[in-house]
Amino acid sequence: MNRLEGRVAIITGAARGMGAAHARAFVREGARVVLTDVLEDEGRRVAAEIGDRARFVTHDVSRAEDWDRVVAAAEQAFGDVGILVNNAGMGFASPLEATTEAQFRRVVEVNQVSVFLGMKAVLASMTRAGGGSIVNVSSVAGLAGSVGATAYAASKFAVTGMTKVAAKELASRGIRVNSVHPGLIDTPMIQLPESLEIVRAAAAATPLGRVAQPEEVSNLVVFLASGESSFITGAAHVVDGGFLP
Ligand SMILES: NC(=O)c1ccc[n+]([C@@H]2O[C@H](COP(=O)([O-])OP(=O)(O)OC[C@H]3O[C@@H](n4cnc5c(N)ncnc54)[C@H](O)[C@@H]3O)[C@@H](O)[C@H]2O)c1
User: Fold this and answer.
1) Candidates 92, 104, 152, 243; catalytic one
2) Is residue 85 assigned to a domain?
3) Distance (Å, rounded) from C-alpha 4 to C-alpha 26?
4) Partners of 57 in the β-ladder
C-alpha cells in the first residue's frame, strides 16, 4: 500500500533518530523526500541509502534564509511540497536555577522559532500543491511539566500552541496541521549524559514498561501526512506508552 504516492515531503532533522526513520517510512509509502539537517555526513549517508527518491540538503532550521534554500531545492528536485515534518530539535535538561539566558534562547531558537519559520516557508509551495499536511514534533514535555525542562518545555508547549493556531488559519487552503508528542524514544537524543537521570525516571513511569523505537512514531507521522487523516487537524497526538495521565 503506497499511502504517500506522488507526494513531496521535507523532513527536518533527518540525519538520524526519528527523522531518519520517518524519511525511510515515507519513501516506502511512495513519497519523495528532502531530508535536512546540520549533520551533513550523516544526512548524506541516510539519503544515499534510501536511494533516488531522497535528497539531502544542509539546513539549520533556526535560520530563515536556510529555509528558503530548502524549499527551493525540494521544488527543483521533486515539485511542490505537500508535506512538512518539523522534526529537528535539541534536547536540553537543566534545572531553572542553573539555566542561563543564552541556553534558554538557543533551545527556543532551535525547537520553536524553527517551526514558525518552517510553516511560513512552505506555505506558498503547499498552496500550489493544492493543500497538504504539516506535522510538528513536540513532546510529552509540550503537554505536561517535567523536572529540569524549563527551556525544553517552553519550546515544546509553544509548538503545541502554534499548531492549533496554524490549523485554524490554514484549513481553508486545504492544509492540515497536527502535533506529535513522543514519550521516550530510543534515539541519540536520550543518550545525552545530562538526560540519563530523567530518562531512567521516565522509563520507570511508562506503563508499557519500555522505551519505543523511532519506527513506532513514524507509523503515526505517516498516518498524519497521508489522506487517511483527512478530517484530523489542530490535534495533539500522543505516542508515549501510556506515560501521560
Ligand atoms: N527521543 C525522544 O525521546 C524524544 C521525545 C520527545 C520528543 N522528541 C523530539 O523528537 C524530535 C527528533 O528527536 P530525536 O529523538 O530523533 O533526536 P536526535 O537528536 O536523534 O535527532 C534530532 C536531529 O535534529 C538535528 N538538529 C538539531 N539542531 C538542528 C538545527 N538547528 N537545524 C537542523 N537540524 C538540527 C540533529 O542534528 C539531529 O539529527 C525532536 O524534535 C525531539 O525534541 C524526542
Assistant:
1) 152
2) yes
3) 7
4) 36
Question: 153-163 burial, b if ≥16 CB within 10 A, otherwise e?
Answer: bbbbbbbbebb
Report yes or no on whether pTM surpasses 0.70: yes
- Does residue 58 lie in a domain region? yes
Tell me: the pLDDT tens digits for 66-102?
999 999 999 999 999 999 999 999 999 999 999 999 9
Q: How many domains is the chain partitioned into structurally?
A: 1
Whose CA is closest to 124, among 78, 63, 60, 81? 81
- Asked if the structure places residue 55 within a domain, the reply is yes
Amino acid at 26: F
Nearest CA, atom 8, ligand 1 = 139
Give every CB contact of residue 49 below 8 A, 6+ residues apart in sequence.
none
Sign of the Cα pseudo-torsion (134, 224, 143, 169, in order) = positive
What CATH number is given to the structural domain containing 67?
A: 3.40.50.720
Give the Cα separation of 28 and 229 in Å (integer). 18
Amino acid code (one letter) for 31:
A
Domain that holds residue 24: 8-184+213-235
Residue 172 C-alpha to ligand 1 middle, in angstroms? 31
The string of pLDDT tens digits covering residues 188-210 is 999 888 778 878 888 999 999 99
Does the C-beta of 110 come closer than 6 Å to ligand 1? yes
Q: Is residue 2 in some structural domain?
A: no
Q: Which long-range contacts (CB under 8 A, 24 or more apart) does 56-60 make?
A: 56/14, 56/15, 59/12, 59/88
